[in-house]
Amino acid sequence: MALAIGTAIPVANAQPPADPQAQYEQLSEEAAKADEDLLKAQDDLERRNAELDQANADLAAATASQQQAAAAVEQARVEVDRVAAEAFQGGATSSRMSAVMSSGSVQNFLDRMSALGVLAEQQNGALNALNAALAQADLVRADMQGAQERAAAARDAAAKLTEDIRQHKTTLNARVAQVRQALQRLSPATRQAMGTVKDTGSYLGPPGAANTALQAALAKRGSEYEWGADGPSEFDCSGLTMWAYRAAGISLPHSSRSQYTLGRPVAQSELQPGDLVFYDDGTGNPAAIHHVGMYVGDGKMVDAPTEGQLVDVRSVRGDGHYIGARRIVG
Fold first, then answer.
1. What are the Low complexity biased-composition ranges (predicted)?
2. Which of 21, 208, 239, 323 is the most exposed place for a label (fewest CB within 10 A)?
3. CA neighbor of 24 nearest in space, from 157, 184, 145
4. Is the model's pLDDT at 325 over the cut of 80?
């Protein structure tokens, strides 16, 4: 996203302007959106794969529990058979008892046993144990079914996201090629100016992780922009903020839209160094966020803008499409 020079970027997908500078800025914004779509899909895929791993672990545990429950049921049935055989002497009565046990639900079984007059006091323990084992087996089957459903849903979502990523990569590659062509149409003097660090000042944040992240980002001034890069020598916008906060021991996703959901919202009038500032397409829609920088103070931010520009400190106004800020710590 071109933030350092020129006027506000037009809405993406509009007819490209004739002016080379405006073309470069518009195409950079469209490429930034494609890059963000890709990064968000990759972030979502990572989350879905984690859900799939957990669902598979739950399924394995449920399978083991099912095997244990089945063994407990079988053991309880054997005990009831033994008690019944002792209570009713003779093969015919024992066979009749086995036939009763093998039919119907637990309640039907108990009802029939009671009707036959075989629920003597000495049999209650065995029957209660069987009843408990069957009830536990039902619970385990429900857990197993739930784990199977979660695993299937995670697999389906991961497969769709994988296809989305393939399509996003194709779109991004096409957009990046357009940006590079537009960049070459700019004058040598303009390209040289964009490739020069203009702010080497010192900025301090509040003590702690925010300042550690701020100093890490400022130390990368002069690094080149690269789509999808997260350091240590090349960055895209969210890659820079992710890398900087990682240096402070805080993990962020590699997506400006995902980063916008973290921490707590901060009014522009209350910005502190280390806060993340976000930009959309001018619609005010968080789903359209495609750029993030880090506030340094004095109405400025450090960011990785777009192809052809270096990591540097710039006005927090950006392209005019400021949508909000988040405080990650504090």
1. 10-26
2. 208
3. 184
4. yes
